[in-house]
Every structure is written in C-alpha cells, then in structure tokens.
Design a protein that fits this description.
It is built from twelve helices and 18 strands. It is of the alpha/beta class. It is globular. It binds ligand LLP.
Length: 411
C-alpha cells in the first residue's frame, strides 16, 4: 500500500473505535511511533555527548511530554506556560532550554527558580534582564547566545528563522562582543552557543552551513578565553507530508557528528516535528457532500481552527478514508465548517466519499493541536494516545461552556 493511501501507523478498526467512543474531530497519536522516533535520534547519537530537548511547541500534550520525559528527553520551551507543562508532566527542569525573543520577567524568574539548564538568549537587552533577575534571586543564570548564522534554510518563509532579516537571535557579527559582555556580567554563567535556522528543512546542507558558522565563533571565542560546554543546533529536521524526501535522521546526525569530532562539545538538539509529526492523525467525519459545477466540496467536521497549517502555509496533508470505498474516486475540496474561504484541509483530493465517512488527515502530530484555536466558538478537539494498541483519552473535547467561562457581561 502506498504512503498516500495507508493509514499507518494506525489501523482502521482502532480509528473507528476511537471515533465512535470520543467523536470527531479527534487527534490520535501512536505511542510506539513517538518512542521509535525518539530512539532513532538517541541511537544515532550513541557515544556523542548529547541531550535531546524536545521542542514542546510542536505538541505540548502532557501525555506526550511524559512519554518523552520517561525516555530521558529534555525540553525546549518558549514560555513559562510550556515550562510549567514540562514540570506537570514529570520532566526534569535541569534538562530544559528556554528559547524565544520575548522572555518576560516572571518567566525568567520561574525558570531560574526551577533550575533550568540554559537560557538561549536572543538580545543584548535580554542579557541585562536575566543578569538583573538572577542577581535579585541570588543565583547565577546559565546562558547561551542564540546566534543568527544568516543561512537560508530553504523552507517556507514563515518558518525560516536563520536569515539576517528574521527577528531571531543575535547577528553573527555581533556575537563576539555580546559574549564578552555576558562574561563580564556577574550573575551570568556562559554555558554554550545556540542556533535554530528554521523548520521543515528537507536538506542537510543548511544545517551543516549553520554549524560551520557557529563553530567558527566557538573557535574565535576560545581565543578570547571563553570556552563553551555545549552547542545547541535547534530543531528543524523535516518530515514527509507529500513528496518531500527529507534526510534520514541517521544521515543528518552523522553530518553533524563529523563536524563536531574531537571538539569535546556536548550537542543539544531541539527536534519537534521529526519526533511527533508522523505519529499523529486528525480524525474527521464527512458532514455534507456538495457536488457543484466547478468544484465539489466535502464539508468535514474538522476545520482550520483544528488544523491551521493548510490555511496558514498552504501546507499539504495527506487525507485518506478510514474505510476506502470501491467506487471510482472523484476530485474533492476537503473543507471545514468555518466561515472563511481559507478554511480548507485539502484541495483537489481524489477520494470515493459518502456522507458519514471517516477520514484521517495524516502527519498531523506536529503543530496541529498546538496551533488550534476556538475560532467560530468551536471547542478544541479531543486527543487520544494509542498505547500498545489500546486507545487512551489524553485530553477531553472542550465543552462549549468552558469556551466562555472567563467572560463577563458588563452588568
Ligand atoms: N527550536 C526552536 C528555537 C524553534 O523555534 C523551533 C520551532 C524548534 C526548535 C522545533 O522545530 P522543528 O524541529 O519542529 O522543525 N508552525 C510551523 C512550525 C513553526 C516552527 C517554530 N519553531 C509549522 O506548522 O510548520
């Protein structure tokens, strides 16, 4: 069975049972795939000092964080909220790196008091702010500078982060000065250096270019007596959604290891999508079929609020019938109930459909639920984890009442 029609890693019976029990739209994840994806990275990193820090933003479900924490993962967080999730899921704060351009005072204070591994600092002002808060708390803050290597990740412009024109990191040319500044601030401890050039990369070359640029800085810093313990290369490894051929984890890691050989640097990586993307599907049911003169629409019960990637990036997700029909397929626009023309999940898909059919939108484990919203006052979907073949509800569907429980009528 080809990638385009297979339900893997799920089977039709399990998905049908889940839809019957917990209704649709529903995100379903496979614990075995999550574990295998994680262990593949670990295996490739054998004998290389390293720490994997799963990028929580890709899928912050507590159950998924717990699964990775139990495998020994650290975490990359970008907010105090994500950090609290990690703690709630049993993650070790000492394996957490904190990224992001806008860390707030209370978030920094929390991270310091929990004893995180490192702040990935993105500006001069942030260095001063972290130094001040650490001083107030009588602590020393571990920091890395996130360097913007000015490398083109050749991915969608919205998820490309390593160019000079992006808001992220400090300029490569300014890094030496800022490291010296950081070394002079009394409440900071320099731990490492960091970069993250973008997401859904399908080539190795930009990673290696970025690594080379960062390593040249590591060498320059050593000449000034600044010796770092780790190098954090962020996340970004792509997955196959359609016809992409992203590098295998093994090839990606081997390319990095080759450059790092003999340097005594611990390698930190922050994979998100590569760990969770292909481990999840969004289950949805066909509500209405609307044949038309120009286009035929299949209106399903999931929408852009559940899976924003098609509307936001024009992203492609395979859509397959859980129980394929024998009839000849027709071309369908797969759309949701939200009142926007941009509310589509797939254009021009060849499927044999009837109302009530169950569909699986594939490769939805990363940036699916985490980017969902309640637009059109639609409760966010349920989430189910399949553990050794057994589906377990890990997040119940939101109730309508909860959607406006924090609102107040003026009188
Ligand atoms: N580290 C940092 C600092 C990041 O900003 C990101 C993702 C990652 C790690 C994880 O990257 P990954 O391994 O997942 O590529 N919403 C977009 C993706 C945005 C990625 C943002 N940063 C999407 O749906 O494609």
């Amino acid at each position: 069975m080809s990638f385009a029609t297979s339900l893997l890693p799920f089977d039709a019976d399990t998905l049908t049972l889940i839809a019957d029990r917990w209704d649709t739209p529903c995100y379903v994840y496979d614990a075995r795939t999550l574990t295998d994806n994680y262990l593949r990275f670990e295996q490739a990193l054998t004998n290389q000092p390293h720490q994997l820090c799963y990028a929580v933003k890709a899928n912050p479900s507590l159950a998924i964080l717990q699964l990775f924490a139990r495998l020994g993962a650290g975490f990359d967080v970008v907010s105090g909220g994500e950090l609290q999730r990690v703690v709630a899921a049993g993650g070790d704060p000492n394996k957490v790196v904190f990224s992001g351009v806008g860390k707030q005072t209370d978030e920094i204070a929390l991270a310091l008091s929990l004893g995180i591994h490192c702040f990935n600092v993105e500006s001069e002002s942030e260095l001063y702010r972290i130094n001040r808060i650490a001083g107030e708390q009588g602590q020393h803050a571990p920091v890395s500078l996130r360097v913007n290597p000015d490398v083109d990740a050749k991915t969608h412009p919205y998820i490309s982060t390593g160019l000079k024109s992006n808001k992220f990191g400090v300029a490569h040319d300014d890094a030496l000065r800022l490291y010296q500044l950081a070394a002079s601030l009394p409440h900071l401890v320099l731990r490492g250096i960091d970069c993250h050039i973008g997401s859904q990369l399908t080539e190795i070359a930009p990673f290696v270019d970025a690594l080379d640029r960062v390593l040249s800085l590591v060498d320059a810093l050593a000449e000034y007596g600044i010796v770092l313990q780790h190098i954090d290369l962020g996340g970004g490894l792509g997955i196959r959604y359609h016809d992409e051929t992203p590098p295998h984890v093994e090839a990606y890691i081997a390319a990095l290891r080759e450059r790092l050989a003999g340097r005594g640097l611990t390698l930190l990586l922050e994979p998100g999508r590569a760990l969770v993307g292909n481990a999840g599907v969004l289950l949805t049911r066909v509500e209405y079929l609307k044949p038309g003169a120009e286009k035929q629409f299949a209106v399903v019960d999931a929408a852009m609020n559940d899976l924003m990637r098609p509307a936001l990036y024009g992203a492609y997700h395979d859509i397959v019938a859980v129980h394929p029909r024998d009839e000849a397929p027709q071309q369908w626009e797969i759309v949701g109930p939200v009142c926007e023309t941009g509310d589509f999940l797939g254009h021009d898909r060849a499927l044999a459909l009837a109302e009530g059919d169950l569909l699986a939108i594939k490769s939805a484990g990363a940036y699916g639920m985490s980017m969902s919203s309640q637009y059109n006052t639609r409760p966010r979907a349920a989430e189910v984890l399949v553990l050794a073949g057994q589906p377990v509800l890990i997040r119940q569907r939101e109730s309508i009442a909860s959607l406006f429980e924090n609102e107040r009528l003026p009188d």
